[in-house]
Amino acid sequence: MDWLDFFDEFFRQEAASVVSILDAEGCREGWLQGQIFLHAKMRNPALRLRTNATRHKYDLFCESEPMVGEVKISGGDYQPKNRGLIREAARKLLNAAAEHAGYQKYLLLVVDNRHPDTPLGQWLLGEFDWPRRRYRKLPVGDHVLVRIWDMSGCDLQEPTTKGARDR
Fold first, then answer.
1. 10 Å Cβ neighbour count for 12?
2. In terms of Cα–Cα distance, which of 73, 167, 91 is closest to 131?
């Protein structure tokens, strides 16, 4: 399974719902993980995808089509600590345990861009990047941008920033 294409398809089909959930503080990421799970199961009922997989310590974990993923939702008016949480999610994927060495690794960042002029908003919408094999940047609705990094086989590095303030 090409997970990058799967995530692309998911966000295009669920655009209206993704936009609507942004104001539901406290449940956004869990809801998104659940929707990804349902979409995957409808596509392939035999798929063994887990969400918020505490045993495996990833937001998304699949054994049958090896993949681990981290899901983050943030915006310019969200708590500044989100920048650190996003960086930590990337580090977790890049440092994935040896037992998951053959797994595809994805960071999914849903950006609420209604407040693009704050320092966090500029960072989220800027050109920061991590090492990756493949990348997608998908506009979803009027004020959502989805950024998906395929971090499989990449080395641990801090994100680079081109043109965005990194405060």
1. 11
2. 91
- Parse the chain into domains and list their residue ranges: 3-150
pLDDT average, residue stretch 101-128: 92
Residue 135 corresponds to which tokens in the numbers above?
């990348």
Please tell me whether residue 165 adopts helix, strand or coil conformation.
coil
Q: Residue 6: which of 159, 131, 150 has the closest Cα?
A: 150
**Helix (H), strand (E) at residue 73:** strand 67-75
Report how far residue 40's alpha carbon sits from residue 33's, in angstroms, rounded to the nearest whole number: 11
Written as six digits, the tokens of 48 are: 């063994």
pTM: 0.89
- CA dist., res. 155 & res. 61, Å (int): 20
